[in-house]
Amino acid sequence: MTAEPIKAAAPGGLSRRRRRQLSLGGQYGLFALVVVAVVLLADWPTLRLNFANWDVAKDLFPDVITVGLRNTAVYTVTGFGIGLVLGLVIALMRLSSVAPYRWFAAGFIEVFRGLPLLLIFIFISVGVPLAFGTTVPGGAVGQTGLALGLTAGAYMAETIRAGIEAVPKGQMEAARSLGMSHARAMRSIIIPQAFRIIIPPLTNQLVLLCKDSSLVLFLGITLEQRELTKFGRDLAGQVGNTTPIIVAGICYLIITIPLSLLARRLEARQRRGQR
Amino acid sequence: MTTLDTRTNAIEITGLRKSFGTNEVLRGIDFHVEPGEVVCVIGPSGSGKSTLLRCVNLLEEPSAGTIRVAGADVTDPEVDIDAVRRRIGMVFQSFNLFPHLTALGNVMIAQRKVLKRDKAEAEKIARENLERVGLADKVGSYPAQLSGGQQQRVAIARALAMGPEVMLFDEPTSALDPELVGDVLGVMRSLAEAGMTMLVVTHEMSFAREVADRVVFMDGGVVVEEGPPQQVIADPAHERTRAFLSRVLDPAAARIGEGD
Judged by CB atoms within 8 Å, which residues 61-90 of B form the interface with A? Predict the structure, then answer.
């Protein structure tokens, strides 16, 4: 029995290639249309005057770097450092065989993951002095670091816990069989491997912290403590021009884009199985 | 037999029972391993032989019974298990090398962190042991860069570097490609010839036949029979042993519906 040969394209139907061409063409066309519309509709002279005013931008330097960018970096790194230590401790408590530790860790994670960071900033700046009669040590850096660290710690605790659980069970057995204590095996064998697994999510956390450090403006800080967002906003107000905001924005990208690239590279390296 | 003399036995197991939930995997095991003896444990999967081995260094906690290794009662709740484990080398089916360390690092880390040897000494001992398993040229390689057979030999070197009195092998060649099995068995044979006390769970009947001083056949959580290999493997007394051996030695002869 001979089957009917299948034609290149059914009569009236489209070949697979033709259909693909049409679909792609449509998508490119729509994209080009939107770009052209935006370009034509925008008021470029006004935009340039208000957002990309070179004279205004010039006056921002070097302070936008030496004060704004620097403080953003300091707040971010402090917050990340506190968050990492806190996250590791909470993650280990979460995995502990001591039940109250697990409860505390679970509670901590739920609370600080669930609260808006803004509320935590307000609590740190207003609540802590009311409760303890003193502010958090370290001034603005200490307060910001703690606020960022508490939230980041909650997120990182879950990441670190997942990393630890992703290390195969045989690793702990091999380490214990060699006579290592549980704590020693954790320190020398399990945690180093867990951190290799979670470097990409931790880098993303750093990017998030970098942006969230802008909330420091709710603390009431001095001129020298201003980070990028506060700096840009203040100067935009002073000169009646939005250019400082744009410059501050670009400064954020100077930090975050390399970090994202780094995270992507680390992730790719890990996927190749190179450890 | 010196069964009752606990000082001279390397491993002494009495009345060992182990349950996982309601599933009783070991139902009363008694046997011993003398110093310098090589004992192979054979038996169908699920017979409890791996569990038995893992009880010896307390990776599994026995439900009942006592186990003495090198004079220490590992089942005593007061025992310093980390100290006892230092004297027991363990080799796993899945190698369990530390992937973030080189071959040399794998063999050095426990020497450094557990035995507190200084770096130079630990490295010297690590290199000697890697050479002993034929991997002197692989010291700088990471586990991912090594074949299964090479990884398993690094794992053996890692255990030997601790200077163990007893070596436990849990199906050390079961995860290997057939052509790599020989290298690992060769290392184990030379260990046995050097007088190491070894308890080996294995499916390699030729190894058991040629290297073991004694073969233990387990089924259903009990020791069915034990004795020299020429007896247990060549001329088994029990029907269960015979059925198992015929399946293992000539798997192509099995018919569907036979056995379990």
Answer: 82-83, 85-86, 88-90
Look up the ipTM and state it.
0.91
Distance, CA of B162 to CA of B258 (rounded, Å) = 46
> Could you tell me if B13 and B56 are in contact, meaning their C-beta atoms sit under 8 angstroms apart?
yes
Answer whether B113 sits within 8 Å of A273, measured CB to CB.
no
Q: B46-85: string of b/e by CB count within 10 Å (b at 16+)?
A: ebbbbbbbbbbbbbbebeebebbbbebebbeeeeebbebb
Handedness of CA A98, A100, A102, A108 (dihedral sign): negative
- One-character DSSP codes across chain B: --TT-TTT-SEEEEEEEEEETTEEEEEEEEEEE-TT-EEEEE--TTSSHHHHHHHHTTSS--SEEEEEETTEETTSTTS-HHHHHTTEEEE-TT----TTS-HHHHHHHHHHHTS---HHHHHHHHHHHHHHTT-GGGTT--GGGS-HHHHHHHHHHHHHTT--SEEEEESTTTTS-HHHHHHHHHHHHHHHHTT-EEEEE-S-HHHHHHH-SEEEEEETTEEEEEE-HHHHTTS-SSHHHHHHHHHHH-GGG--TTS--
At B5 the pLDDT is 47
One-letter amino acid for residue B48 of the chain: G
Q: Which residue in the block uniquely carries the two structure tokens 């038996």?
A: B43
Q: Side chain identity at A102, as an amino acid letter? A: R
Question: Which residues in chain B touch residue A179, judged by CB atoms under 8 angstroms apart?
Answer: 82-83, 85-86, 110, 114-115, 162
Q: Which residue of A has its CA nearest to B84?
A: A179
The pTM score is 0.82
Chain centre to alpha carbon of residue B235: 24
- At A1, the pLDDT band (50, 70, 90 cuts) reads low
Whether B39 shows a pLDDT value over 90: the answer reads yes
CA gap A85, A79 in Å, rounded: 10
Rounded-to-integer distance, Cα B59 and Cα B93, Å: 14
